[in-house]
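Need a sequence for this fold. Nothing fancy.
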């Protein structure tokens, strides 16, 4: 295997799954694989996967909660716990959850992390909508 990436980082299926230009299932490797895995963790509610009922991030328990300091703190804790449990290739340096300045029901989750095998410092910013649909249609109600 001719690669300058440590084997600990690995390769995995691209998410969402797709076919590459050669007709094979597309794979991700290196930091792209790690970031995709992190996004899958954040996008999965515990209990959503029948064969892995504890997999995911408990931020989904906070859906529809008011966007205040308490909720933001609980979200930071949930993200730290999920990343520590489900993504062993990284070490969490910081988690910051900030409300969307437009006030449209979303928050921005900024995760600072270090890839353990390479000591590469990176960050991932992930949007999360506490009020689904609120940010997409301007908040109109029925």
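Here you go.
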């Amino acid at each position: 295997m001719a690669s300058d990436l440590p084997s600990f980082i690995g390769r995995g299926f691209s998410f969402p799954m797709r076919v590459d230009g050669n007709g094979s299932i597309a794979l991700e490797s290196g930091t792209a694989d790690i970031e995709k895995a992190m996004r899958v963790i954040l996008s999965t509610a515990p209990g959503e996967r029948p064969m892995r009922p504890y997999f995911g991030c408990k931020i989904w328990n906070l859906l529809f909660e008011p966007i205040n300091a308490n909720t933001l703190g609980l979200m930071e804790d949930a993200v730290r716990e999920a990343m520590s449990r489900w993504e062993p290739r990284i070490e969490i340096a910081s988690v910051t959850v900030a409300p969307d300045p437009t006030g449209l029901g979303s928050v921005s989750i900024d995760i600072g992390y270090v890839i353990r095998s390479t000591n590469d410092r990176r960050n991932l910013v992930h949007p999360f909508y506490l009020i689904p649909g609120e940010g997409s249609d301007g908040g109109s109600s029925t």
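For context: The chain has one domain: 11-129.
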